[in-house]
Amino acid sequence: MREYNKFAPDSVNGSISTAELKRNILKKDNRIIVTTIQKLNNLMKSEANLEVYGQQVVFIFDECHRSQFGEAQKNLQRKFKRFYQFGFTGTPIFPENAAGAETTAHVFGRELHAYVITDAIRDEKVLKFKVDYNAVRPQFKSIETEQDELKLKAAENAKLLLHPERIKEVSQYVLQNFRIKTHRSAGNGKGFNAMFAVSSVEAAKLYYEELNRQQRHSDKKLKIATIFSFAANEEQAAAGEIADENFEVTAMNSSAKEFLTMAINDYNAMFKTNYSVDSNGFQNYYRNLSDRVKYQEVDLLIVVGMFLTGFDAPTLNTLFVDKNLRYHGLIQAFSRTNRIYDATKTFGNIITFRDLEQATVDAISLFGDANTKNVVLEKSYNEYMLGFMDIVSGEAKRGYVEVVKQLKEQFPDPTEIETDADKKAFVKLFGEYLKVENVLQNYDEFTQLKDLQHIDKADAAAVEAFRDAHFLTAEQVEEMMAVDVLADRAAQDYRSTYNDIREWLRRQGGEDKPGEIKVDWDDVVFEVDLLKSQEINLDYILELVFEHNKNTKDKDALIDEVRRLIRSSIGNRAKESLVVDFINQTDLEDIEDKAGIIDAFFDYAQQQQKIEAEKLIANEGLNVEAAKRYMQRSLKNEYASVNGTDLNEILPK
Known about the structure:
By secondary structure, the protein is of the alpha/beta class. It has a six-stranded parallel beta sheet with strand order 5-10-9-6-8-7, sandwiched between helices. Strands 1-2 form a two-stranded parallel ribbon. Strand 1 (about 10-15), helix 2 and strand 2 (about 30-35) form a beta-alpha-beta unit.
């Protein structure tokens, strides 16, 4: 409704009940009426004779693959005598995925226009999908790779797919990899959030409890929520259809209702709200939860059916799946992740704990065209490592290995980059590195490759332990060892130089130098979003100071490490001297924990702020009290106002 009214104010009437729908129909205005198929059906069943039944009526159905093959559609065709209906759907019901005889074309007639997912990706309206089957549970692999739906349905029990050991291992994977998959591993707490689609209320309960159990001692707990309701056992209109969960919580069995009550109480405690499982309370919980997911206040949402269709949250980039998805249910669920957001979000990230590869290919082929797989699915890990030809753009894309090789050969020491031409060449090359590394962060193989760099490769026992922990073969580990990876320290140095050049260009605009050819910077784009995705916050830096001092007791080495870290950051560069002075002037041995060092730094920063303010007031001869008020107000507002009398009051009289 909001979108309709943006286009034309007061152009639409909403209907929160069947009675209001009737009142809107009886009105003599020309507004569009927005309602649901359920309210329309209730109206047709309760009102035998309405004037509108004989009038010309246009029905426009969104998501028209749903709810168009049952009682409501039959009543509509019987009651309305002069009507036209148009349907919009991204996942029509074709003969191939129809559960019965009827298809979308049977209800709405021939297709008027097709704009499929490949078109949307080419037009950059949505993102591709990266789909990974995570197979790190060898004892359950046979059932996870099973394709027979009847066998899979029979395996939804505590001995197989809901086995406690499997729930434990999947939960462990989710917690260990959550920050990597959602681009939060840099320590800035930003990035994205995720959804976890599971097969049943029982599965939701087991995962909710196990995830919270495993993170109970963590000092950085994920905010986990869940939602589900009653789904009537109705006949499916299409294969793979996700059952509609309504708001009738009273229809759930006592065990499900008891768990939902507990989960909502946890939510209430987390966010200081007061929702419940009664009808209005549950609907309000649904709305509030929806907003908190959209604004990233909820990190991980566990769902059975709700939120898997029609829910849009651009900040959501990852879907964990332990559920048998097929056809349009699969596309609908996957599509929760592929909304455009920023340069860091390059695709919808799908991690499945069941082998959905064939189901994915079948679904995207049905709803796309012959070339859909190549357009919709992200490239493989090996392609991003070694390079590939982009079918959409027709461009050859270099891989990580080649980009790193050129970086090291062309710019072995980034501090020695001096000429404008070299600066431009470096910015372009390192921007290429940032883009390919940003994509690779989502691949488990790349995470393993990075982890391998922290192991003594000459230590056979350590290598064997690494191999066993990741279920790798000796040959796979040997191949990984042969890859030349950019070390963390080198990457920090490159980022620092990248930031230096960006600041230099902003200040000087690439001024001509005697004897140098003028360099055109118009075709250079600094990958600021990608830099920000790796941004670290001040708390993270201070925690590293505490850990480093505890382990080495070497302040010179600590300061060198801190300078390197801060200079590779966009937002913390101005704080470098303050942090270094704090380290030099503080007895770090007296600080007992991470919270203590953060408190100590902010006390120190406030003292320094006061000293600097008094020095400025004294040097400029400012009005003391007025200047202090002006500074406090400016710091609170995060900007200094030059309007009104505030500035005049602080000046010397």
